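Action item from last meeting closed. Structure (112 res):
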């Protein structure tokens, strides 16, 4: 059974940093592209970033480029998202995604 468990969310001040983690299980993590998606209040899912199986290639949505960094540790089956210089409008639930599957998410709130 596939498992994706996100952690690391919480309250952060504007301009602050946060690192999200996703522990994956039930599939060969090191063989697949992984992604982070988010859902802001009242909006649909938005793909934030993706990373290739070996970590060589990363993509970012324009609004987070140069502020967020996606990475992975294939020895630990773990995906990360380092978020710097958070903005109040960035509050959302962040999900780890593998193919059509995603975890339960971790909520990130930016204080105003």
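Sequence:
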């Amino acid at each position: 059974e596939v498992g994706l468990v996100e952690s690391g969310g919480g309250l952060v001040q504007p301009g602050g940093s946060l690192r999200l983690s996703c522990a994956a299980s039930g599939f060969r993590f090191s063989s697949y592209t992984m992604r982070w998606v988010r859902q802001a209040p009242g909006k649909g899912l938005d793909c934030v970033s993706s990373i290739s199986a070996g970590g060589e290639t990363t993509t970012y949505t324009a609004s987070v480029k140069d502020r967020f960094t996606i990475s992975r540790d294939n020895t630990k089956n773990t995906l990360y998202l380092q978020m710097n210089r958070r903005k109040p409008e960035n509050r959302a639930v962040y999900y780890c995604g593998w193919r059509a599957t995603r975890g339960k998410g971790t909520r990130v709130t930016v204080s105003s």
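Note appended to the action item: The first strand starts at residue 3 and ends at 7.
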